[in-house]
Amino acid sequence: MKYQIVKNALDLAHAGKWLQRDSEDDFFPDALNFADIHAKLDEYISQREHRYLQIDTIAHLMDSVPKASGMLREAQWVHPTHRLLYLSILHHLLPKLDHHLPPEIYSYRRDSEDMNDYPFPDKMGRWKIFHNDFRQACLDDDTNAVLLTDIASYYDHISVDELCDRYLSILGASASQEDIEIIGCLRSLLKQWSTAGFGIPQNYDASSFFASLFLIGADREILDKRYRYFRWVDDIRICAKNKKQAVRALHDLQAALLRYRMFLASDKTKIIEKGTSEFDSLIDVEDDAHISELEDIVARGNRGEIEEKLPVAQQRLEFHSGPEGDERKFRAFANRLMQIGEYAEFKDAVNSHIVPFVKKKLFEAPHKSDYWYKILQESPATDWMDEVDQLLRSDASVFNWQRFYLWKLLTAASSISNELLSKAKSTINNPISDAEAYQAIVCIGKHGDNQDRESLFVQYFSPQRSYLIQRAILIALQELPTDRRSKFYERGIQSCPDHTQLVRYLEELEEARYGVKLRPTRTLPEQPRVVRTDILRGIGKVQGRVVRYRLSRADYDYE
Fold first, then answer.
1. Fewer Cβ neighbours under 10 Å: the N or C end of the chain?
2. Contact, 16 vs 84, CB < 8 A?
3. Cα 103 from chain centroid?
4. d(CA 21, CA 13)
């Protein structure tokens, strides 16, 4: 890698403006959402301008996130300096590569021609269109069977060398010397994070785009066979004229993926024929239409409409909480109810209905703890404290990721017990997960006393501790008396100058920030608002009849 060419070609300043958007849905979100880096980006980049390409000198952390089955997927915490480098590589390559993807690939496509703008603002909207276009194809008279499948452990099996070689092949003769060197930088960066040259980190925008592009050869192979093909990263759907053609499509897809050393997940692969109840459920949009209607009702703020539709939403929430329900739709109705609860007139009634269902989900669906945290933090801690105490102390969760979110939930509480505070301290002593310890430290900063805060620095801040732990400790010191805090901050900068921008940002805050972000509270308007009706792009069936409806707005809690 020719460092000077790469340094001159990469635009860290523009890519840095994407960092906060990229980090909003991190597996282990930062308490400040890297607001310190965003606020002092030029200074942050300048301090590291001679070091950020020294890729092997910056450590990353390995952790895990649970799947619905109880199995674990790898989850990497990537240092923010590496994230800026990764995003700047995306910033350079995205306009050169995106247009090579066929329109049948929906995932992480560029939404703006202006590369100063965040490139994927409508990624959730694209996800909905992916599902909607597939549904529309299912409704065609020519479709009598569909293939649904997923690639097994897709991100983990991507070869870094093959991925980078493929990008060079796509660019071909148009590849400049800058492109070649930047792809070489990408290769070095991904190998730093990989296991024996395989695997790229999940849940980062750059990874999502690069992973989506990796299969472009298989896409073309399937499309050349004239199949009706839809793909979202590793989620693949094909519409067929009959079951026999669907089986043939399955075999062709297996053969195409095998050339990439990729394999389909057998437990997620099925062929469904038209006329079956399973096919009918694919095209049923009754709940989707309800969800969109609820959005419009909330936007108008008409008390009568809300009172009329509230029981329907509560009934659908209850249904989807059960064994016959759909967990995605449970989250969707929970989120719409929470939107209704933003009106002070309905807040207590909404929370009292939702909380019992969501508390159960902490035990039944730990793989969605990030959603349950966002819902429960809106209710008084007394409503859920016993369950959280159980999962942290008496019958501790086996999932680092869930424990991280339980500490995050406790950080949002007005107070916690001495027993939980002691548990947070013990979590730091010999951490199973630095990510969990990070959030436990932030929780101590919020709920501990000044002696607890000072002890965090004295006992645990050292060059031998990870950057993540050091960052948490500095965040936890915010409420110390100014003179004491300043002394610890200066000692922290002397020990690790990379925290300079964080410290200066924290010193400028008017009030302490611990990453607690609650929904706004509002009151119903005197007159209902006028709500613009969007294009009725959504299509499906309700009680056997084809209907058009407005696709729900981008909603991470649903998807």
1. C
2. yes
3. 24
4. 15
What one-letter code names the amino acid at 496?
A: C
CA dist., res. 503 & res. 509, Å (int): 10
**For the CA atoms of 98, 99, 100, 102, what is the dihedral angle to 10 degrees?**
100
CA–CA separation, 469 and 482 (whole Å) = 22
Radius of gyration in angstroms for the set of CA atoms belonging to the chain, rounded to a whole number: 25
The count of other CB atoms within 10 Å of the CB of residue 486 is: 14
CA distance 454 to 386: 29
The DSSP call for residue 101 is S
Cα 326 to the chain's mean position, in Å?
20
DSSP for 454-472, please give it: HHHHHHH-STTS-HHHHHH
Distance of alpha carbon 89 from alpha carbon 50, whole angstroms? 17
Strand partners, 538: 549
Q: pLDDT tens track of the chain, all 559 residues?
A: 788 999 999 999 999 999 999 999 999 999 999 999 999 999 999 999 888 898 988 999 999 999 999 999 999 999 999 999 999 999 999 999 999 999 999 999 999 888 889 999 999 999 999 999 999 999 999 999 999 999 999 999 999 999 999 999 999 999 999 999 999 999 999 999 998 999 999 999 999 999 999 999 999 999 999 999 999 999 999 999 999 999 999 999 999 999 999 999 999 999 999 999 999 999 999 999 999 999 999 999 999 999 999 999 999 999 999 999 999 999 999 999 999 999 999 999 999 999 999 999 999 999 999 999 999 999 999 999 999 999 999 999 999 999 999 999 999 999 999 999 999 999 998 789 999 999 999 999 999 999 999 999 999 999 999 999 999 999 999 999 999 999 999 999 999 999 999 999 999 999 999 999 999 999 999 999 998 776 788 999 999 999 999 888 755 444 4
Would you state the structure tokens that stand for residue 40, as one six-digit string?
Answer: 């002092």
Cα within 13 Å of Cα(93), Cβ side: 28
Please tell me the pTM assigned to this model.
Answer: 0.95
Residue type, 504: R
Contact 29, 68 (CB under 8 A): no
Return the closest-CA partner of residue 206 out of 330, 292, 103, 78.
78
DSSP letter for each residue of 381-434: GGGTHHHHHIIIIIT--S-HHHHHHHHHHHHHSS---HHHHHHHHHHHHS-S-H
Q: Which residues pair with 78 in a beta bridge?
A: none
Tokens read off for 144: 């009598």
